[in-house]
Design a protein that fits this description.
By secondary structure, this protein is of the alpha+beta class. It is about 35% helix and about 15% strand. A hairpin with a 4-residue loop joins strand 8 and strand 9.
Length: about 375
């Protein structure tokens, strides 16, 4: 168990489904995706289960393999709840940009103006720099404080300011705006800015501006470790390769706006189609979101060549370009993407953590290949 908790510390560094193999695969890309999911689940170090949602216009198809629950042997369904990890950053981006659109927030607003109680060295950092990870803020998930929290009291509910407190005494990693560096601290501060200008909790603003209007009734931001049913359980492989259920091991307050959202494959697909299309944004805000930093990658990297915008990543693949976000946390790895107009989308979820630094590297490479095949299926004629 201790080995698992130490591994999880790095993780914080954080409808109806068609049955497996029964989707009407009338394109070769669909068939390749289904085979890739099956091979991923069967591979050494692979997940117990995987699901992919591919939508072309109004044609939504679901592909799955393996099991969402090793005890019941059930497969993964569209309505099963799951942790979406760092894809939660896209939700905080959507919430902040909705306030920018209303004139309540500005991309030029600084930490010093809205959150003067945060470290003086951070005061010049802007909302825009937080959203595209050029802030230079130290990453709290790499601190000894979060490591102690997750290993000793994983279900403890901690407030966001305590998360920031783990790195409040550290200098900026670089001069803001001069470099790209993915930091989980960024989106914690984004959500605190949302609270500062709205006078409401981030969860309330998330509900009011995104979850409610976009019809995401199965998506929420909890503080505790519970995950609603029906659900896809998350697992961690032990040293003997046996799976340990870690679904409710860690309270989501440890990642909050940076990675604590729970959703379903159906809701996640619906969200990314709206978000990638810039729903509710003016042309100026839409253009600002898409000023990409070449080579800025999400965590873990998405398929193809990655570039970073404002809480949105561009993935240039052999089959075309999509926009979205990835994420990984204890028990789950996520990829959500859509075309620029939101009409083509690909979502891939697995119930184990796989990255270039956590889990089996060969299995992660297989997962990244599978994500690329999902994009090809989404963009197919």
């Amino acid at each position: 168990m201790r080995r698992t908790l130490l591994t999880l510390t790095a993780a914080v560094a954080l409808g109806l489904a068609i049955a497996p193999g029964t989707a009407n695969a009338d394109t070769s890309e669909d068939a390749r995706l289904q085979r890739a999911l099956e091979r991923l689940v069967a591979a050494d170090g692979g997940p117990p289960g995987a699901i992919a949602v591919v939508q072309r216009g109004s044609d939504r198809r679901v592909y799955s393999s393996g099991q969402a629950d090793l005890r019941t042997k059930e497969g993964w369904r569209l309505q099963d709840h799951m942790r979406i990890a760092s894809v939660a950053k896209a939700f905080s981006g959507a919430t902040a940009l909705a306030l920018v659109e209303r004139g309540t927030l500005s991309l030029d607003d600084t930490i010093g103006r809205l959150l003067p109680g945060l470290p003086q060295a951070w005061h010049g950092v802007t909302l825009g720099q937080l959203l595209n990870h050029t802030s230079g803020l130290p990453d709290y998930t790499k601190s000894e404080g979060i490591a102690r929290l997750v290993t000793r009291t994983p279900r403890k509910i901690v407030p966001p300011l305590e998360l920031i407190g783990f790195v409040a005494d550290r200098p900026l990693v670089f001069i803001p705006g001069t470099r790209y560096s993915y930091s989980n601290t960024d989106n914690i501060v984004v959500a605190l800015m949302v609270e500062a200008v709205s006078g409401r909790s981030y969860s309330d603003e998330l509900d009011r501006l995104v979850l409610g209007p976009w019809g995401l009734g199965s998506t929420s931001l909890p503080f505790g470790a519970a995950l609603p049913r029906p659900r896809a359980n998350g697992y961690q492989l032990e040293e003997d390769n046996s799976p340990l259920d870690v679904t409710t091991l860690v309270a989501q307050a440890a990642s909050w706006a940076s990675g604590g959202i729970q959703s379903t494959p159906r809701d996640l697909n619906r969200f990314i189609r709206s978000y990638a299309a810039g729903r509710g944004l003016s042309s100026s805000a839409f253009d600002a979101q898409r000023r990409f930093i070449d080579g800025g990658g999400s965590e873990p990297p998405g398929p193809g060549h990655n570039s970073a915008g404002l809480a949105l990543f561009r993935y240039q693949t052999k089959c075309g370009t999509v926009y979205g976000h990835t994420g990984n946390t204890f028990g789950y790895t996520q990829f959500a993407s859509a075309s620029a107009n939101g009409q083509r989308s690909a979502v891939v979820s697995i119930n184990i953590q796989l990255t270039q630094n956590s889990g089996d590297l060969a299995a992660f490479k297989r997962l990244r290949h599978t994500n690329g095949l999902a994009v090809c299926a989404a963009l197919a004629d």
